[in-house]
UniProtKB/TrEMBL annotation:
Pfam families: Rer1. One of its GO terms (biological process) is protein retention in ER lumen. The chain crosses the membrane at residues 41-60, 66-83, 144-161. The gene is RER1. Involved in the retrieval of endoplasmic reticulum membrane proteins from the early Golgi compartment. It is found in: Membrane. Keywords: Membrane, Transmembrane, Transmembrane helix. This is Protein RER1.
Length: 211
C-alpha cells in the first residue's frame, strides 16, 4: 500500500467518524426525549426552572432585553399554535371532512392541536436554551429602552389572545380535551332528593305487593 492510499483512507475516514459521532449523539438525545414523553409535569417543571434562571440572569446583567423580547414573541407564537386546531374551521367546507363538534349530541371528536404539547414544550425549551447562550455574547446586547419592549409585548399579547378567544367563541370549541364524554341514563340525571324519593316509592311498592 502506498503512502497516498493511506493518506486518502485517513482523510476519508474522518468524515465517517465525525458523522457517526453526531449520529450517536442524536440517537441518545432522541432516546431521552422519548423517555420523557409521559412525564409532562416534570418536563414543564424543568422548563419553568430554566425560565426562572434566565430571567434572574437578565436581571443581574441588566442587558439582553432584545433577546428576551424575541424569546417572548417566539413563545407567544408557540402558545397560539398550541391553542389552535390543526384544521381551521373557517377554511373547512362541509364536504371536506369532519370538523369540530358544535352540538352536544354530535359524535365525540378530540381536539387535535396544530402544535402538540410535546413539540410545544420541546420548542419552548430550546428557545430558552438558545436565549441563555446568547447572553454570553456581547454582540446580542443591543441597547434598548426595555419599558417600551414590555409595553409592546403586553399589547401584542392582548390583541393576539383577544383574536384567538373570538375565534374559539365563533366556532364553539375548547382547546382542552379530558377524555371521551360519557352520558348517563335518566335515573342518574335527576337530583339526589328525587332519586331518593323514587327509591322509597319503589320499596313501598315492593312491600305492598308482597302476599
Amino acid at each position: 500500500m502506498s503512502e497516498g492510499d493511506s493518506v486518502g483512507e485517513s482523510i476519508h475516514g474522518k468524515p465517517s467518524t465525525i458523522g457517526s459521532f453526531f449520529t450517536r449523539v442524536g440517537q441518545i438525545y432522541q432516546s431521552w426525549l422519548d423517555k420523557s414523553t409521559p412525564f409532562s409535569i416534570g418536563r414543564w417543571g424543568v422548563t419553568l426552572s430554566l425560565t426562572a434562571i434566565y430571567m434572574i440572569r437578565v436581571y443581574i446583567l441588566q442587558g439582553w432585553y432584545i433577546v428576551t423580547y424575541a424569546l417572548g414573541i417566539y413563545h407567544l407564537n408557540l402558545f397560539i399554535a398550541f391553542l389552535s386546531p390543526k384544521v381551521d374551521p373557517s377554511m373547512l367546507d362541509e364536504d371536506e371532512g369532519p370538523a369540530l363538534p358544535t352540538k352536544q349530541n354530535e359524535e365525540f371528536r378530540p381536539f387535535i392541536r396544530r402544535l402538540p404539547e410535546f413539540k410545544f414544550w420541546h420548542s419552548a425549551t430550546k428557545g430558552i436554551v438558545i436565549a441563555m447562550i446568547c447572553t454570553f455574547f456581547e454582540a446580542f446586547n443591543v441597547p434598548v429602552f426595555w419599558p417600551i419592549l414590555v409595553m409592546y409585548f403586553i399589547m401584542l399579547f392582548c390583541i393576539t389572545m383577544k383574536r384567538q378567544i373570538k375565534h374559539m367563541v365563533k366556532y364553539r370549541y375548547l382547546p382542552f380535551t379530558h377524555g371521551k364524554r360519557t352520558y348517563r341514563g335518566k335515573e342518574d340525571t335527576g337530583k339526589p332528593f328525587a332519586r331518593f324519593t323514587s327509591y322509597i316509592q319503589y320499596l313501598s311498592y315492593c312491600n305492598y305487593s308482597e302476599p
